[in-house]
Amino acid sequence: MSESARTAEPAGCAVAREGQKDVIVFLNVRRTPLEQRAAFFAAHRLGHEVVLIADKAPADLPERLVREVHQLDTFDAAALDATMADIAARNTVAGVVTWSDPGVEAVSRLAARHGLRAPSPAAATVARDKFRMRESLKDRPDLIPRYARVRTWDEAAKAAAEIGYPLILKPVTGNGSKGIYTVHGEDGLRPAFEELHRYVQPSVDRLFTGHDGEILVEEFLTGTEHSVEGWVQGGEVYFAGVTDKTTTPDFHLETGHVFPSALPAEALESVHALTRAVVAAFGIDDCAFHLECMVGPDGRARLVECAARGGGDFITSHLTGLATGVPFCENTLRVATGRAPLPAEGPARYAGLIRVMADRAGILEGIDGLGDALRVAGVEHIAVEREPGQKVAVPPADFVSSAVLAVIATGDSYDAVRASLAAAQQAITIRIGDER
Questions:
Q1: Which of 142, 275, 130, 139 is nearest to 217 (CA)?
Q2: Which helix (H) or strand (E) holds 51?
Q3: CB neighbourhood size of 122 (10 A)
Q4: Which uninterrupted H or E stretch holds 95?
Q5: Residue 11 clears pLDDT 70, i.e. is over it
Q6: What is the pTM of this model?
Q7: Where do the ATP-grasp domain residues begin and end (predicted)?
Q8: Conformation bin of residue 253: beta by default, left when phi > 0, alpha when psi is -120 to 50
Q9: Which of 412, 417, 428 has its CA nearest to residue 374?
Q10: H or E element that contains 121
């Protein structure tokens, strides 16, 4: 691929190779190169090249796998529709997928226009709106927390009084654990509300377009945190498995995962039953899904949210495939192109991830011990997400940059994976200096 394909291009500009057919369109890709490659290689294994539409094309794309790159504002519906029409006029398009929340509704619209497989626009709208998620299940209060959508301080104070403390404030639309506040009492409500209200604006993050100022106030759920990974095709739910999650107690940033879950059989059945009910209520079909839930002390699962796309944070790009032997991204593309997902014969191994986080704001001066961490038995990858010299910050100032790196490990048991991750984390030191 020419250098021009890797740099900024005007809307609709493409770099193409002639005489080739049958492509899969990706609407943006995941944030890290390690996750991106998993998606590109999945397309390759299925015999497809990729046409990438992206707000910003990543550097060093695999040129033998990526046929065209269209760099444009993907929030511009007219430009996006015109670009997709141009791609379809010159290629046989087998499917269209996105790998993160901002593209879910756009992919549904594009698929409907071009006769491709994806969730319906109505289902995609629900899966991008946490208030609508709960409204679609309001006849099943046993599956959801108590909740209210608010836009003003008076509405927030009224909702908090009705729901009770502790409670959660979060954006109505969002992703990546951005903007989640735990409020333990009345004195903490107003500061949290004002900080979050300033954050949920399109001028801060275009993810909030159409939902500016919208906040969800909801019941604080106790128990353990999990996600469910799988696909829906023709109304049938296919489970890849359940992931156990570790999060920070204050802002619920995800710091660790282990797949498959250690939940007992009864709790797993509750999680599966919740998933089937959510998929049916939302109308999700012909896509991957990533459902997050809490399992209470009584073993009952309740919904946190459900996305109509595969999970991020290396769960579906790496953990599920390392554990089961069946690449999740490949099955996602199989479903998007009308093929049944490949089954796994049950988990062959366990896989997990731990994040090394900055504990204060400043300048990342260095990362020590990476070589020692890579030599820990079971460690498969270390993905460095912040480079020395970059600024790091902690919530609520920033919800992303505190994640410095992630360690991925496998093992023959749940405990072996956790031990490998702990040993790798112990070997790594991150050095943060003051801003000058």
A1: 130
A2: strand 49-54
A3: 12
A4: strand 93-98
A5: no
A6: 0.91
A7: 134-337
A8: beta
A9: 428
A10: helix 121-127
